[in-house]
């Protein structure tokens, strides 16, 4: 894909000790132009029909993700399959509340995914904190830290709700609106500032390849 | 009429195109059959195509150095190389590929060439799980290599040639002339080795998805992954065609080829759905036990 924009300035990587900075990449993410017209529609169709899930099971809602693989719900028939590595998966499923410690891993994994990447967030905990709204240790709205495409409400959402959510995600991708990767690159500074506000022990590069 | 070199290259492309599509559909339909066994509907038969398009349509990709890029290239070269030296359809001009005398040795070399290339590439990815997957894969490969090599030796001794075309020619004229009928022990050893080669259960510990995320290709993404997925189809097709030629009388037309290779591949699904996964040490012990003895017995039978 062609890239029409200039490269942004290198990142400071201040969280890393000076002797380690040279080992990590200091390039900020950049935006990628979608292809044009029917070709992009075709690619979007392929992206939507082959959703590879990265589900770490961050919160209790993740327990409803597992039944999708079983013969009762069988997500494979919708072209959805689990993929254990962030490099290969295209949909990041946030499985419920995210503690600050988990958020760090969420950010790392999200940044390691190859674009176009999509995020589905389960449960009311990811929307407004849910029953953990006054917890000292969890974040309230996940979309202040990474861009989210679909929220699935409920505490916890049933597998049927998850399937409906994935259908909604497919619709969004097919319509060409699943541009979370570009959104993240465009508002990178804002997202980083939010992340650093809550993650106190920032000992990783500013952008994880 | 003997085609020119240019004509043969053209035919090779046609043949490669056919085997790629056949391999992809085979993977898709086997996934669907496995799903039926588990009482599911299963993914569409054309899902492998969509997955490859999706992987190749990724907008960015990362690399870890030259060897990292060369890994999938070697793998693909191994897959195409294996296929190119096996006559897919006996007596056909289009599907003859570049088979020539002594190609059996070349093919055996190519089967393992891809794995080694991939091991180097995955190693440069730097992911610890890649290294674990690679060491498991190579250990398992060394083990199933033994019964496989023994049965190939038995076949070579029996027909007195290393030319796959000649081996197929010797098996023409009915079921009684197939290696399956003349030296069943060699076939048994080879089929057991085949289970290990294709990495289905019970020998799937190499790419154990939840334990060592996908193993060797953990770090591969975007079009490199697309390449690996395409190669999987070609390589599968090549191995099946090789087995069909060595043990099941080859094929004189494409329909016979499809039916025979489908049935050979089906053995995988049959065993894979019925048995749980072996650990690496278990599978090594397994391959070096009874299958190796069967392989030795098949060589002895062939010599007598
Ligand atoms: S929304 Fe409910 S089920 Fe989901 S993580 Fe929060 S408390 Fe758990």
User: What does the overall shape of chain A look like?
Assistant: globular
Whole-angstrom Rg of chain B:
19 Å
Secondary structure: number of strands of chain B? 0
What distance separates the N and C termini of chain A?
18 Å
- Low-pLDDT segments, ≥5 res of chain A: none
- Portion in strands of chain B: under 5%
Terminal-residue CA separation of chain B: 40 Å
The residue fraction in helices of chain A comes out at 25-40%
Main sheet characteristics of chain B: none
Uncertain segments of chain B: none
Strand order of the largest sheet of chain A: 2-1-3-4-5
SSE pattern of chain A, N- to C-terminal: HHEEEHEHEHHH
Shape verdict of chain B: globular
Q: How large is the radius of gyration of chain A?
A: 17 Å
Strand fraction of chain A: 5-15%
Structural class computed from helices and strand pairing of chain A: alpha/beta
H-E string of chain B? HHHHHHHHHHHH
Secondary structure class of chain B reads mainly alpha
Into which percent range does the helicity of residues of chain B fall?
Answer: over 70%
The hetero compounds bound to this protein are:
iron/sulfur cluster
Q: Treating each run of at least 4 consecutive H or I residues as one helix, how many helices of chain A? A: 7
Protein architecture, described:
The complex is a heterodimer of chains A (209) and B (304). In chain A, β4, α4 and β5 form a beta-alpha-beta unit. With 209 residues, chain A is an alpha/beta fold. Chain A has seven helices and five strands; from the N terminus they run ααβββαβαβααα. Chain A starts with 17 loop residues before the first helix and ends in an 11-residue tail after the last helix. Chain A has a domain of 144 residues: 3-Layer(aba) Sandwich (Rossmann fold), CATH 3.40.50.12280. The radius of gyration of chain A is 17 Å and the shape is globular. Chain B has one domain. Chain B is globular. The model of chain B has no long low-confidence stretch (mean pLDDT 82). The complex binds iron/sulfur cluster. The site of iron/sulfur cluster (SF4) has 12 residues of chain A, from α4.
């Amino acid at each position: 894909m062609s890239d029409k924009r200039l490269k942004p300035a290198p990142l400071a990587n201040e969280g890393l000790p000076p002797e380690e900075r040279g080992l990590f990449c200091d390039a900020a993410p950049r935006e990628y132009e979608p292809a044009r017209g029917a070709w992009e529609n075709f690619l979007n169709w392929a992206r939507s029909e082959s959703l590879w899930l990265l589900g770490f099971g961050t919160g209790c809602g993740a327990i409803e993700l597992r039944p999708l693989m079983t013969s009762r719900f069988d997500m494979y028939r919708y072209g959805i399959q689990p993929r254990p590595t962030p490099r290969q998966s295209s949909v990041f499923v946030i499985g419920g509340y995210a503690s600050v410690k988990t958020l760090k891993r969420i950010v790392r994994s999200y940044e390691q995914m190859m674009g176009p990447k999509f995020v589905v967030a389960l449960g009311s905990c990811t929307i407004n904190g849910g029953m953990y709204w006054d917890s000292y240790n969890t974040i309230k709205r996940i979309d202040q830290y990474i861009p989210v495409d679909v929220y699935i409400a409920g505490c916890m959402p049933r597998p049927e709700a998850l399937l409906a959510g994935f259908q909604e995600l497919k619709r969004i991708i097919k319509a060409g609106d699943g541009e979370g990767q570009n959104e993240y690159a465009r508002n990178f500074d804002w997202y980083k500032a939010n992340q650093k506000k809550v993650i106190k022990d920032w000992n990783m590069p500013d952008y994880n390849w | 009429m003997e085609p020119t070199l240019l004509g043969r290259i053209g035919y090779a492309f046609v043949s490669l195109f056919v085997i790629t599509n056949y391999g992809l559909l085979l993977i898709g339909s086997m996934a669907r059959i496995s799903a039926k066994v588990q009482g599911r509907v299963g993914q569409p038969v054309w899902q492998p195509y969509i997955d490859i398009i999706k992987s190749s349509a990724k907008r960015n990709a990362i690399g870890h150095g030259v060897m990292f890029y060369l890994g999938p290239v070697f793998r693909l070269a191994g897959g195409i190389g294996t296929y190119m030296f096996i006559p897919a359809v006996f007596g056909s001009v289009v599907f003859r590929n570049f088979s020539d005398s002594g190609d059996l040795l070349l093919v055996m070399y190519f089967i393992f060439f891809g794995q080694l290339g991939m091991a180097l590439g995955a190693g440069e990815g730097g992911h610890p799980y890649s290294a674990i997957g690679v060491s498991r894969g190579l250990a398992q490969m060394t083990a199933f290599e033994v019964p496989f090599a023994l049965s190939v030796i038995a076949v070579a001794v029996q027909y007195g040639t290393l030319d796959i075309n000649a081996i197929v020619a010797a098996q023409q004229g009915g079921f009684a002339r197939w290696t399956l009928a003349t030296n069943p022990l060699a076939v048994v050893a080879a089929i057991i080795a085949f289970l290990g080669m294709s990495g289905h259960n019970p020998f799937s510990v190499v790419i154990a998805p939840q334990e060592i995320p996908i193993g060797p290709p953990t770090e591969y993404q975007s079009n490199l992954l697309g390449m690996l997925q395409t190669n999987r189809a070609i390589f599968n097709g090549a191995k099946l065609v090789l087995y069909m030629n060595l043990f099941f009388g080859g094929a004189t037309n494409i329909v016979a080829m499809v039916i025979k290779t489908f049935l050979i591949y089906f053995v995988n699904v049959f065993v894979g759905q019925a048995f749980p996964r072996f650990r690496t040490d278990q599978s090594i012990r397994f391959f070096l036990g009874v299958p190796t003895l069967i392989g030795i017995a098949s060589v002895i039978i062939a010599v007598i």
